[in-house]
Structures are given as C-alpha cells and as structure tokens.
TrEMBL record:
Keywords: Aminopeptidase, Hydrolase, Metal-binding, Metalloprotease, Protease, Zinc. Residues 67-181 form the Aminopeptidase N-like N-terminal domain. One of its GO terms (molecular function) is metallopeptidase activity. Its EC number is 3.4.11.2. Belongs to the peptidase M1 family. This is Aminopeptidase N.
Length: 849
C-alpha cells in the first residue's frame, strides 16, 4: 500500500489558472472535453503530471497540436516545453456503471457529481489536489427531455437550444476553486425557490432542487438556509458571494452533503423533511447540515486546504460553526449534551483504538478513510477550546484576520493558529499539540479539605496511541466551580483554569460549608475526567449543579457507577425520580429531563471498562431499566399523559415534550402492563409526527407482542416507496435487543428493498446492526461473519462504504479473548481476500497491527 506523507508535501509544479469544460451528458457514455491553461510554478523543468481514474482518453492536444502521450495507470505525464500552455483533453466516462458514487454517477434519473476528495480525476485528467485553484467555465449539453435542468457552480449564463431535441447551458464561477469543489447535475428536477438579500444588498436567488413530488418537503431546509446566511453575517461578518445558491437532493450519496461552490449536493435525508416522515432529530439534522454546508462557503471554499492532511482546518471549524448556529436556534444545553454524547460514542473509541490519529494526520493510504469523527468532531472541540481561551471577541478578531490574510488561498492549520495568535497576542505554542497528538487526555482530580480551605489538584495524562509512544502535556481550558453541599448553590464564580502543566493546584479559601466540585463545565475540554465521588454526592449534583452539562454528567456518572455492579439501583431510581419531579414542577425543561433520565448506552458502558463484558452490561442495564420502569411507573404515566399528543410544532418546548413522552413510553412498555402496550399502539396509530410514530415502534421493538408485529407491518405499508423512511424501518429492527435479531437481519438482507448500492440503506441495516452491542457481539461470532460478508460484497461496488464497515471489527482488543479472536479472524479474512480495495485494505491492516 502506497502511503502519502505530510512531510513529503511539495507545492504543485504546475498551476491551472483557468478550466473550460464542455460536457455532453449521457448515462452510458458522457464526453468531457477540457481546456486547461497551465503555467509552470517555480523554477524547474519537471513535466505536467495529471491524475485520472477510469477514463477513456480519446484525444490530447498541447497548444493545439496532438500529443501521443499514453496514460500510465492513473497518471498522465505531459512534457511542456515552455512555461505555459493550453492543454485540451477529451475523455469518455460511464456514469451508469460508476457504483463508487465518486466522480459523475447516476442517482435515480439524475446525473450528479461528487468530487471531494479525489473524484474530479474520475471526470477528466487534472492535477487533482486542493492547492491548485482555477476559474471554471462549464458548458453542459444534453437531451432536453432527459436533462431539462443543467446545473453547475457559479452563475448561470447562456442557454442554447440545439438540434435533435438537445440543449446546453453555460455556467461561470467567478471564484477560483480547487477541483474538489467542482459540481454538475443534470436531470428532471423541480425547485423550491426563495431569495435572500445580503447585508450589502446583493439579491441572491435560492433554489432547492428535487423530484417534483418532494418540493413540498424542502421548506424546513430552505428556512435553515436563510437562517444560516443571516447568522453568518451577524456572527462572523461573512456575506454570500454569488447571485445564485443551488442545492440538489439526491438519493444515492456517500456522505451527508457536499459544499460545492454555489451548488451544494445533499443526501436527500438531510433536505426532505415534513412532520409525517421526519423526526425532530431529523429536522435538527437537516438544519445542521444545511448550515454546515453553507458555512463552508467561507471556511473551506473561500479559504481552502493546502493538502488533505489539513482537512480539519475546514471541517473542525465548520462543525464548530454549525454547532454554534444550532445552539443559537434552540435549547443550547441540550445541543451541547447531544454533541458530547456523539463525541463520546464515536470519537473517543476512535482515539482509544487502532485507528487513532491526530486531528491533523500525517500519513494516509486512502484519504476517504480520514473523514473521521476525530477530524470533524474532535476538530470542532479544538476550535471550541480556542474560542474559550480567546473569548468571543478575541476569536472573532482571529477569524477576521484569518479571512483577510487568506481569502482565495489554500492554507494550513498552522496558518489558522498563527492568525489567532496575531489577532489576540496569545502564545498558542503548546496549544498546537492538539493538532499533532492523538488520544483523549485524562484529567484526574483530587481534593483535600483543611478547615475552611480546599485544595484541588488537577493532573493531566495522555496514554500512548499507535505510532505515538510518548506524549507531551496539552494546553486546555478547564471550567470548574464549587457547589455547596448544604445550600445546593454555587459558591463564588465559575473558574476557567488553563491546564498546561502535568499538575495544577488550586486553593479555595474561606469556605463556610462542605462543597462538591462541578468539573469540566460545558465540557470545556474534550477529556475524560476521573474524580472520586460517592453516589450520594453524584445524586446531589444531578439535582443541584447550575451548569446543565455538569448536571447531566453527574447523572451519567451515577448511572455508570451503579451499572458497573449488581447493586440494587435504588440511588439511580431516586435520582431519576427527583429529576422527573423537577420537570413536573417546571424547574427543568422537558427536553433536558428526557436527556437526563436516559441510561448510558451499552456501548458507552463498555467503553469505561478495560474489557467489554457484553452479557453483564446488557443484563445489568436491563435490570436497572426494569427497576426504574417498575418503581416509577406512576411518574412515567404522568409524564406520558402530560407530554404526548403535542402536535406538530417544532419549537423547543414541543420537541422536548415529545422527547420526554417517548422516553416515558419506553419505560412503560418495559414495565410490561397491557395498558402500556395499548398506549404504545394508541400513540403509534394516532401519531401526528414521525417522532411519535417511530417512538412508539421503538418502544415495542424489543417485545414479542402482536402490537409490535402490527405496527412494524403498518409502518412498512404506510411508507413503502419513501426511501428515507424505509431506512428507519430497517434500522429499528436491526437495533432490537431480541434474541432473533441476527436472524431478522439476515431476512432483511434478502428483502426486496435492501440494496448494497445505496449507502443510506447499507448504514440503516448493516451499520445499525453493528452498533447493536448485545446482538452484533454474539459469542459465536455470527455477527462478525455477517458484517464481513456484507463488507466484502459491498467492496466490489463501493469501497468507501465498505471501508467504513470495518471500524467495528477494529475494536477487537476491547473484547474478551474469544470475541477478540473471532473479530481478528474476520479482519484477516478481509485482508486476505484477493482484489480487496485499498480503502478496505488500509482499514483492515491498521486494525490488525
Ligand atoms: N466536505 C464534505 C465531504 C464529503 C465527502 C468525503 C468523501 C466522500 C464523499 C463525500 N461527500 C462529502 C462534506 C462536509 O463535511 O461538509
Ligand atoms: Zn464539512
């Protein structure tokens, strides 16, 4: 496997100031003629090297003269005698057979492109690297009936009506961009249209393109787009820079969405939403992804990455910006809890396993494998720490300077940090280690009380990760406060401590009462905190801490403590009862209550132990759930009666009510009365929203009841044909804890609606099953075999999708010897399969190392 190394970076030998593309769209054979102006970059005599993949090269001209160059695999080398030239190349490509969904491919009746990271080379020969920025003009031609809508980046120009029922449109993008931001779409599309007037009076035409039948389901996305445009002006002073902004929703897509300049392409899952088909979480995800892609216009597009090692420069920063945006739209506390939950569920395990890498990796085989939670989510936490350290105004001065210095450039994470330093005068030398060191730091806290004085000792450590045996100390902002053990109030102000040394000692004087520590408030640093606390103290903090994150965290810690034993869970039951009572009395909002009373997942419980004990974790958690359900049954009924049937409103109150009602219903079904099953059935049948309907179905899915079977059958019939909803039907079954789940998944793999060609469907069934700790980790290895079978099958279709499926098997060191050996055996089988893709090979071999 060929490794690409950051240390080998060299500026491009040739630049391409302009690109003119002429594309004749055809599903079976699209012809692409490119006209590149190329200029020598620097004092050297090296030839022009172009990247290409799966291209049929028909003609090459340099300065108008045919050239006999023959591609050498995925490289085309052209000797250019002077310092500049015009290179014209004609290639043919085959979208219909492009099952990788990179480059130009078919989705339903559309032709659509995906170029990040290295898809442009599947459209034409090009120096396909992000530090080559070009001005593009694109002429798209096709059959007018088959491709009535022809879209590309920038602003729409001349339209031509041609003989034989054909037509063409030319698009010009006035902003230089790297090839990964190129996009084109052709097909039968209808649009939801709107407009936005920018802070300097530019009137921008907005359009969201989709199948005609789905236009009515785009309004939430449109509202989110306008809110994002407004927010980026107000918070960061960033204005949109074209007269048009187009979004296209497609069914087959390798990721969530893509920020192509002026022409975002979206996985339909993140555009189409109405209350019948989308849950509240889906609505939030739509708004979050629309905002994310829009924010890339400045953080990613106007200022882009020099090379793919710098991916977090745009992704970490843009995730942070979309998190800020979402927090501003609704319940900020619940958003923060959700973000931390996601980080811990995916990124912490990544940091603790064979795929651990810094947010700026320094080597890769396949860049597609590095679109990870570390680069995205931990990257966002690193930006958030800068925001905390520099303060809101300092951070804004830093971003202003970054945009001023680097607009139109392809830059590095170092350029970003340097701008932050220059704008604020802060020295971030030690902070830079977050870019280089993998792993999740631990902060261990001890406190000692002497009379009215309290000494707190904070010690940081960072364990070795693959390739990084020893680590240096990190610079992290750590918020903490004291909570009075008698008064239940915060004592003094919250403190923001900058941990830089191995140990930091804090002294608090003149304390009048016993105190408890409220630690890492707001999750100010992405670390694990180890601090001794009794169950009684944790229960107290769960009811008294004035920082919502820390309050939720206290409940999590209490739950983990109880669930690590076979103890009677009465402390947990009492704490949940107190939280429900606070909610019922209006002292806590329902959304927070719904979060706080949820037990940690089996996976997260497993992450706390040195060896994951699949059966004990499941047994203890189920026993605790049963106790919480039974003892608090009246309270769950009260919560359900109060909060169910909230209607379709999307405000924070209504969403919180639905969340709590669903949690209550799940506990009621766990308690197992006939009334509870009837209530679930009633909620399912009378649901005004998908949140209510899927909530009822999820509550029933672990049961062996006629209600479950009836709702499951109804759900399929009701939503047949709507792919995004049918995905939910697959997922809910794959996540069932019933003993027959693996068998059911095998049946579903043969279902007529299942296909390995659609990444959403694959994730919905196989991805979801691999997240079902109890059933995926069956002791006989049947779950691992199923996953490996599907991975190898999908690798022949779409290696990027296949490689992602390898991640759960890579966690073999975390499980008992028996399971570990079975997981390794499947990884060996994968790595030993002839013709396996480099994407999968990299994941499998790293996992086995
Ligand atoms: N920047 C986009 C990344 C992306 C992508 C990466 C690999 C393969 C397919 C892909 N589609 C989109 C998405 C984003 O972070 O905004
Ligand atoms: Zn992004």
């Amino acid at each position: 496997m060929n490794e690409v190394r950051l240390s080998d970076y060299r500026p491009p030998d040739w630049l391409v100031p302009t690109v003119a593309l002429d594309v004749r769209l055809d599903v079976d054979r699209t012809l692409v003629t490119s006209r590149l102006t190329v200029t020598r970059n620097g004092d050297h005599r090296r030839p022009l090297r172009l990247d290409g993949q799966d291209l049929e090269t028909r003609r090459i001209l340099v300065d108008g003269a045919p050239v006999e160059a023959v591609p050498n695999g995925e490289e085309l080398v052209l000797a250019i005698p002077g310092d500049s030239a015009v290179v014209e190349i004609e290639v043919a490509i085959a979208p219909r057979t492009n099952t990788r969904l990179m480059g130009l491919y078919g989705s339903d009746d559309l032709l659509v492109t995906q170029c990040e990271a290295e898809g442009f080379r599947r459209i034409t020969w090009f120096p396909d690297r992000p530090d080559v920025l070009s001005l593009y003009t694109v002429r798209l031609e096709g059959d007018a009936a088959q491709f009535p809508i022809l879209l590309s980046n920038g602003d729409r120009g001349a339209a031509e009506t041609l003989d034989g029922g054909r037509h063409a449109v030319t698009w010009t993008d006035p902003w230089p961009k790297p090839s990964y931001l190129f996009a084109m779409v052709g097909g039968q599309l209808a649009a939801l249209r709107d407009e936005f007037v920018t802070m300097n009076g530019r009137r921008v035409e907005l359009a969201i393109w989709t199948a005609a039948a789905d236009v009515g389901r785009c309004s939430h996305a449109m509202a989110a787009l306008k809110a994002s445009m407004d927010w980026d002006e107000r918070i960061y002073g960033r204005e949109y820079d074209l007269d048009q902004f187009n979004i296209v929703a497609v069914s087959d897509f390798n990721a969530g969405a893509m920020e192509n300049k002026g022409l975002n392409v979206f996985n339909s899952k993140y555009i189409l939403a109405d209350s019948e088909t989308a849950t509240d979480a889906d609505f939030d995800a739509v708004a979050g992804v629309v905002a994310h892609e829009y924010f890339h216009n400045w953080t990613g597009n106007r200022v882009t990455c020099r090379d793919w090692f710098q991916l977090s420069l745009k992704e970490g920063l843009t995730v942070f910006r979309d998190q800020q945006f979402s927090a501003d739209q609704g319940s900020a506390a619940v958003r923060r809890i959700d973000d931390v939950r996601a980080l811990r569920a995916v990124q912490f395990p990544e940091d603790a396993g064979p795929h651990a890498h810094p947010i700026r990796p320094d080597h890769y085989v396949e860049i597609g494998n590095f679109y990870t939670a570390t680069v995205y989510n931990k990257g966002a936490e690193v930006i958030r720490m800068l925001h905390t350290l520099l303060g809101r105004d300092g951070f804004r001065r830093g971003t202003d300077l970054y945009f001023e210095r680097h607009d139109g450039q392809a830059v590095t994470c170092e350029d970003w940090v340097a701008a932050m330093e220059a704008a604020t005068g802060r020295n971030l030398t030690q902070f830079r280690r977050w870019y280089d060191q993998a792993g999740t730091p631990t902060v261990t806290v001890h406190m000692a009380r002497a009379g009215r004085q309290l000494t707190v000792n904070l010690a940081q450590s960072l364990a070795a990760t693959p390739g990084q045996p020893s680590k240096a100390m990190m610079h992290m902002p750590f918020r903490l406060a004291l909570i009075g053990r008698d008064s239940g109030r915060r004592i003094g102000d919250e403190r923001l401590v900058e941990l830089t040394a191995g140990e930091t000692r804090l002294v608090f004087e003149d304390l009048d009462e016993p105190v408890l520590l409220s630690l890492n408030r707001g999750f100010s640093a992405p670390v694990k905190v180890v601090a001794p606390a009794s169950r009684a103290d944790l229960a107290f903090l769960a009811g008294a801490d004035d920082d919502p994150f820390a309050r939720w965290e206290a409940m999590q810690r209490l739950s983990l403590d109880v669930l690590a034993t076979d103890d009677d869970p009465h402390e947990l039951v009492d704490a949940i009862a107190a939280t429900l009572a606070d909610g019922a009395a209006g002292r806590l909002d329902p959304a927070f209550v719904g979060e706080a009373v949820l037990l940690p997942t089996e996976a997260f419980i497993g992450d706390q132990a040195s060896v994951v004990d699949v059966e004990s974790i499941h047994r203890r958690r189920e026993a605790a759930r049963a106790a919480i359900a039974a003892v608090l049954e009246p309270q769950w009924w009260q919560a359900w009666h109060w909060h169910s049937g909230t209607g379709t409103a999307l405000n924070a109150g209504a969403k919180g009510a639905r969340r709590l009602a669903n949690v209550a219903l799940a506990y009621l079904v766990t308690a197992g009365s006939a009334e509870a099953l009837a209530a679930a059935r009633q909620q399912y049948d009378g649901a005004a929203t998908m949140t209510d309907r899927i909530g009822a179905l999820s509550a029933l899915i672990n049961t062996d009841t006629p209600e479950r079977d009836a709702c499951l059958a109804d759900f399929y019939d009701r939503f047949a044909g709507n792919g995004d909803v049918i995905d939910k039907w697959f997922t809910v079954q794959a996540l069932s804890t019933r003993a027959d789940t693996l068998e059911q998944v095998q049946v579903l793999l043969r279902h007529k609606d299942f296909t390995l060609h659609n990444p959403n469907r694959l994730r919905a069934l196989v991805g979801a099953f691999a997240a079902n700790q109890r059933r995926f980790h069956a002791a006989d290895g049947s779950g691992y075999r199923l996953l490996a079978d599907q991975l190898l099958a999908v690798d022949r279709i779409n290696p990027q999708s296949a490689a992602r499926l390898a991640v759960p098997l890579g966690r073999w060191q975390r499980f008992d010897a028996g399971r570990g050996a079975l997981m390794q055996a499947q990884l060996q089988r994968i790595a030993g399969t002839a013709g396996v893709s480099k994407d999968v090979m990299e994941m499998a071999t790293r996992a086995l190392a």
